[in-house]
Structures
1.
Amino acid sequence: MSSSPSASDRWTTRKLLAWTTEHFEKRGIDSPRHSAEMLLAHVLGVPRLKLFMEADRPASDLERAAFRDLVERASKHEPVDYLVGQAPFFSMMFKVTPAVLIPRPSTETIVEHIIQHCRRTPGFRAPVIADICTGSGIIAISLAKQIQEAQVVATDISGDALTIARENAKTHGVTDRIDFRQGDLLEPLKFERVKYLVSNPPYISDAEFEQVLPNVKDYEPHLALRGGSDGLKFIRTLIAQSKQHIEVPGQVIIEIADSQKAVVMELAQQAGLENANILNDHEGLPRVLVADVT
């Protein structure tokens, strides 16, 4: 199309999606069609499925104006999830703002592992779980939702992140089983011990951060992304101190960068963790450390 959606012609859902998809493709926006659908569904206040059921529905002037504004912002690599205020994770929707990271599918590997492990392992049926660096609360809330007997302690150094996490917990009906605490890494646990110590900490090194895409680098919170000169500042502390907070038998589960596999395995061995293993994520990349404390 030669003109933008501000034109006076009849802009249907079908036409808006086609134009926007092409527009996003030219600007190198990730998942252009999906992004266009998310924005239009948000503006119209309908589920994405309804876009296809009413493909020839004409947009009003106000709808076109609101949509055009969001498209312009997304074209500058502002994350679509922030623009619509929510993101999917583990078949649920979570509120997200620039105070928290946007959920990634790789993190679902953590949730899947714990669900399977606690169901098949004696002594883990009603676990106490600590989710360190909880952010928007996706891990803590997903686990509380899936493991009815679980109690979760979720910590984060950011008060703004915890506000979002508490809202998400309320939305998904698990507020009564998650204790949100503000503090640095393991400090809020004090002397408590848990069955699962889990974390998706900041792990991007200073060198790798220079290569991070603008939709992440310019918009997502650096506090939740950057892990120091080698990316291991927080991972190193979590591994070294994990045995102090894990009930025997128990497990530590930490998301890492795939480039950190070898050194993380060495850190686990030095800390006296047993049966250390790195799980592959949905893309087949080594992304999650799992180790036992026995």
2.
Amino acid sequence: MTEHIWVWVAPPGWPVPPAGWSPPPSWQPPPDWPAPPVNWQYWIPVAVPETSPPPVTVRVEEASRQNLVWETRFVMVAFLFPGIMAAVVELVRHIQGVNDVQTFTGTVPGHPVSNLILGILSYMAIASMVPLVLLLLARTGQRPSSLGLGRPRFRADIWPALGLAGASWLSEYVLLIPFAAFIKNHQKIVNSTMVGHVPAYYVIYALTLSATTAVVEEVMVNGYLITRLEQFGWTPQRALLLSLTLRTSYHVYYGVGFLLTIPFGYFVTRSFQKHRRLTRPIAAHFIFDSVLLTIAVLTS
């Protein structure tokens, strides 16, 4: 493309002006200069190339498969290691007769409101990995919208989530029946957390804990891990097996009771694999945990 500028041109017989010169206001040619031709055009348009800034090229190197594999390993170790180590410690303490594991640990004895606030703040630290993995996924083209992560919708998310939570509760109850006698006679290898006596307003704590856990676990174990395994060419069955193994690993503080966490993990992972709506398992996880914790708080 070109643009035009107006250039002043001297008539024949006049001195050639310097480049870019134009007559100043009230300028008149000297009387000894020859008269210009009739209808002489002093100003003419001259085409010049349109100048534009050079294009800016942003180079984004596509991560190789090997780099993505190592990225996935590092991310999952960073996510799982603290939880697994804490779970192992609690299980060993339980086996050795220390039974003080509580869901709502008191940080400041005798100050329930302070415990509520500090407990929420300290627990929310586990969500620090979520922005990182969402950024890593976005760098390879998997933005939150492509994962089905967004504002929950009743028919697409909440209603199916109620079904996932209900199926999980029912499955756990069915599994619990044949193991009831075993659990009763082997208390050392079966552990359960205690709520303790807390005020009713600790329902706020229960809901916040449930929401944080739901977002963190489903983004990490479904949104990130399952997506990466699919990129590596894993079959859905193989990816499901690894997902369940890692999901249950940080629940070993339950002892053999960690087996009861498998149905829920199975249902929400299969839901994500089939429907690609991450908001749905997040909603199911929140419903599952919040109902149980709310009941525990109100009956403490």
3.
Amino acid sequence: MSKAFTKESDGDDDDDALAQASDGEAVPVKYYLTPRGFAQLQQELRTLLYTERPKVVEVVSWAAGNGDRSENGDYIYGKKRLREIDRRVRYLTKRLEAAEVVDPAQQQHLKQVFFGATVTFARDDDSEHTVTLVGADEVDVDAGRISWQSPVAKALLKARVGDVVELRTPAGLDHLEILAIRYVVAKA
């Protein structure tokens, strides 16, 4: 079969940002972001649109003027990079349109774990961990920012200080004791 008739996956999971309405129409699904995460996505979008893309377009235009495009590495790589940038721009645009920005400092239920909470907990082995529940595009495990949809976060949701929650892991059942819950604004 000709490659012209096949569709390669572009690597983005655009379908995860869509749900089916009752009339069968695809509608965007809201998803949570902290103000910091929203600002980071906006900055990435601006950088792609106003800095990186124009530079690549300039290189591609120059390379196209050099003649034979089939063996022109600058042209081929530039076109590939433009497709990558455009794909990321589409993804970021959809995410930003569907984003529900939740400021942790504005949370109403300060005694329970919800989106944006910074939680300190102890495991069965007496090790203490501190994590902040953030949106999927803000995850940074090394900095202690985990997705609010991760297994650990799901186990912690709605818990209060002193509660012990169960976390199922591949190694077996683990118990997490909630030691502290804070809602703070993360610095950029």
4.
Amino acid sequence: MTKADGAYGRAVAVGVVSPVALCVAAVAIQLAVMGDVPDPVATHWSGDAPDGFASPTLVPVMTAIVGGMLPVVLGASGLRSIRRGERGFVLRMMPAVAAGLAALMAVILTGSLLIQRGLADAADAPSILPAMWVGLGAAVVAGAAGWLAQPRHVERRPAAVPVGPIARAAGERTVWVGRAEMRAPALAAIVAGVAVAALAAVANWLVGDTAVAIVVTSVAVVLAVAAASLTVFHVRVDAEGLTVRSAARFVRMRVPAADVASVAAVDVSGLSQYGGYGIRSIPGATAVVLRNGPALELTRQSGRRFVVTLDDPATAAAVLAAVAEDARAAQD
């Protein structure tokens, strides 16, 4: 499969153009009926009865954000990988999911206004369930159509470059130490999210409800632990083999030198190859993928691969190849 298969253009049409078109159509209908609905309108239902109300203008705003911007971001997130020639299940699925999400939100949010046309009081609004069921059906149809509109993806990834052992003097020992970490913008966004959660926890303890404060604090703690455990890893290659340990020391993975069958440097895409970022496990491989780009790839004696993103994978691979060679020689 090559770049000429039309995958990029169809992914754009499905994951970007169709959500925008659905969003624009939904907002146009909403604005057209704005004068026929009560103010405020019902925006939330508990069972068959509305229990949340807001200005009618909130509906098109939410449609633009949740039914437009969010699906477009989702649909566009894999386009760069597709343009590079990468193919995979996730890269085909994401535009289809974006189209389905856009259809879901367009129908539900527009339906929430249409069922209130002619009402004097939004408290008399009928159940939102029929609109939700229609929205779910529209999402399934749009998602399936988006999937079928794209060409079949045969997984394709850059070839690994085998690396031989680093040159050493007789009896010389080698050690390589480095870090695997997220790109600065992604790391900053995560840190900011943890900070916001922490501030919200403090605010709730000072002026909020105790039960809410406990929940928010728990969320902040979980986010902080996850950020410390999954954003930066220390990587060490020595006579024992490869060790990958999170900065917070909660996660530690080790591959003994004797278990290393081969090593290579490879270019990885977390989204297309592993379905996301962080610690990933897929058939045939375990990976610590914190960003797209160069990575160290080792193959264990069992044939299973272990991958970790690094700035200098070739040197790390060469040192690992050397210590693996020493370990095999010691066993003979």
